[in-house]
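Hey,

Quick one before I head out. I ran the complex with molybdenum atom overnight. Inputs first:
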Amino acid sequence: MKSGISRRRVLAGLISGAGAVLLAGCDRLTQSSGFGTLLRNTGKLTMNSRRLLLDRQLLAPEYSLADLLPVFRANSTQAPDSEEYNRLLENDFTDWRLKVDGLVQQPLSLSLAELKRLPSRTQITRHDCVEGWSAIGQWQGVPLGRILDFAQLKPSARYVVFHCADELEATFDGSGRYYEGIDLLDAYHPQTLRAYAMNGKNLPVAHGAPLGLRVERQPGYKQAKFVMRIEVISTFETLWGG
Ligand SMILES: Nc1nc2c(c(=O)[nH]1)N[C@H]1C(S)=C(S)[C@@H](COP(=O)(O)O)O[C@H]1N2
Ligand SMILES: [Mo]
């Protein structure tokens, strides 16, 4: 962000977003918890999303269908090497659940069908890998901010971590799974999606089936593939050595 003004605007957006979270909390008191509530609340676009949408300068450039590449390269992990993932893949991910937990009032467990029933956003953007290649693709998915609002962030929430099904690269010490973290500004950015479709089809395995992260304005490695769990945290210190 270049100017102090736009930074202030984003902060104002986040503060009104916190208000939306509180309101969602009041609704919840009078309704049964779980996915029913999630569906009932989908009509509400959060204040911070609206504000960010108004500030066009903050959006990553979007392209047209004519700009799509015939072949979009698949990079690094092409398929997680795990029995659990293979079992989920065999059943077309009907048994897969996206878990949302950590610093939230209402932990969630969402099936792919449930995610697909939520209002989605479709965008054509450029993916830039730091290894030196770029490609333009179309993604469809649920704005992450909306899912976080349903889960209702606790006041101490600062970052959102995406836990993936594949192993970390050997260079990372090999102790755990691939993960990526983003801050709340990126998490509530209107172009940040939990993407389940790419170029009009279900997300292919090589590109992160069943669910990938699109966080535009961030480099390729932030676009976590094979996302299994979203964890909301206050500090990175406790996460595999920070
Ligand atoms: N789970 C997971 N996500 C990942 C990676 C990975 O190895 N595992 N590689 C990252 C890198 S470096 C890039 S460039 C993109 C590649 O996405 P693509 O295969 O859809 O082109 O995924 C990113 N997300
Ligand atoms: Mo990358």
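The two ends are 25 Å apart (CA to CA).

Talk tomorrow,
K.
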